[in-house]
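Section 3.1: Structural characterization of target chains.
Under the original work plan, the team committed to producing a structural model for every single-chain target entering the pipeline before any wet-lab resources were allocated. The record below documents one such target. The sequence was received from the expression subgroup and is listed exactly as submitted; it comprises 436 residues.
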Amino acid sequence: MPSGVRRSRYFGGYVSEEGANGLKAYKYAGSDKSLMLKYITNPMYNRIVVYFPVWLAPNLITLSGLLCTFVTYWIFHYYCPLLEGHAPWWAYMLNGFAILAYQALDAMDGKQARRTGSATALGVLFDHGCDALNATVMSVTMCAVVQYGPGVTSFVFWFVAVLVFYSATVEEYYTGELRLAIINGPNEGLAIAAGVNFITAAIGASFWTQQSPIFGITWNWILFIVTCGCAFFTITQNFFHVLLAVRENKAKVEGGYGKFRYRVALTRLLPFLCVVFLSLAWVLLSPTNIMLRHPRIVLWALGFLFSKLVTQLMLAHVCDEEYHPVGKTISVIAFLGAHMLFNLAHQVEIPALKYLIGTSILKPFNMSVFADRGMNILVPTPSNVENSVLVPHEDVVLYEFFIIAMISYVHFIIGVTREITEILGIQCFVIKPRRE
């Protein structure tokens, strides 16, 4: 499949013939104005990277950074399963160092690629994919560190973290360049996150739930407000650059390139926002308080969906193709939407919807048979049509949603990696020897 494969938006491969040509022609463009990077970390990284063996593939460096934060994630999963409670002081110290290690390795993978002449579109996509996954890893762990607990606060904190990442990717898709400001997440943001962990190791996690002198607000809420404020500024800047790019490319609009139309640009966020708001409605309307009981599963199901959507966007960028934000992901979104429809009918009493469900092909089946056999999968309400509605057992639905999202994401990652390596004639974790 060296020249790419023809694909439909819903079936087949992920890289088209046109996309294969875009992959081969892709050149990374980016700028980082961070003062911390310029004067502190970058000189240090330049000295360290020369000690990496030339056979070490850049993607292995990227993956090693992600594994660092995954290790501490599981430590906090053990001590703080519900995103609250205290972990040993060394866990916070280790998490702080893991964040700094991730930051360093994420910066040095590109330096290693240029040093070994192995820079490719796959490396850019792999780096971005790991960053997308790490957005969920780190945000969930930070919720446990600062004691946000299993509620809407943790949900919103995760949403803010991933939305910043998504909006930056949309900007890169439209401008063709990743531009980072003087103060940005990959540099100062990660340094602050590491500092929060070091402070917590020194004074204890209970500090974050204590009242501050500022209107009596707890310290973790001050951090939450500052985070949301910085995120709002960053997202606004990202979309301002997107609108500028759309305006500056009117010629491409006249040529029929729909990407550079205002209404098309505004739709790039719709699938992600649809997923988030459907999930938030689920969390708020849940009859069994699903977020309070399974906060990590809820956030990881959404995290897999987010990672897939944002990596799909980056794939369209490196292939120089139109981004189709729904595609194969429509099945997962439809699953979530269908559950919300059932849940909403149960919560707000919609007679027409209940009648539709009650007279559907589900009605002839006696669902109590499953309950009698210990399979509490569907819990029926009274059997008459006007009041009957089948309410899915929320734990089962959640785990189904999680498994479907995870399988969809893993299939996408493996499929895209396989196709790109065949198109470019490279290996993902091995540097191809240079021809003399």
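The first helix runs from residue 17 to 25.
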